[in-house]
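Good morning C.,

I know you're traveling, so I'll keep this short. The sequence:
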Amino acid sequence: METIKDFMTPIQEYLQPDQTFHEAIFLMNKYRLNTLPVVDAGEKLIGVFTRSVLYQMLLTNKKMDTQIAPFIKEDIGTISENISVEKLEEQIAVSEVGTGFVVNRVGKPIGVIDKADAVKSFLQKNQLLKEQLKWKSLLQTVIDNSYDGLVMINESGNTIFLSPSLVELFDLNEKEVENVPIESLFPHFELTKSLKLGSLK
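The tokens, ready to paste straight into the viewer:
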């Protein structure tokens, strides 16, 4: 099953409060990110530095050696590396910066997820998985309660699946009918020959 780590962009470098405006611009351009994580000395996430703040600094003619500390956005939410799909959807919906930072159990940022595309893909794929599981459960219910015998074989003509009704009808042992030639179970039906011809005779 796919997890949040399959969609996040791994974080390789961080900013710290004593770093400069110039260093922030360099990292933004290097990694093509609109928001950069800011960490403390222990590499724990304490805030973010956004592109919108960068533009404000440019408009107010801040010097390139100005420290970013006063411009850090500290009130941010983080995303646990073990978050459920439902919780992720809730957090992204209320995100103010449009980017989610994935942190490990000690609060260290390990990845970033863009609100516009990666999260959408993550949720869509998990929704598809839910639909597949629902239909699989429904199909299993139909098979278990069907009065008609159902059998599935592979390309070699060996059994993959026999429905409970078929096993009961022919008084077969479930453990002895797995991956065996279908002709050995039902020789009078000539199923392999019929499949090669494309029709039952």
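Safe travels,
E.
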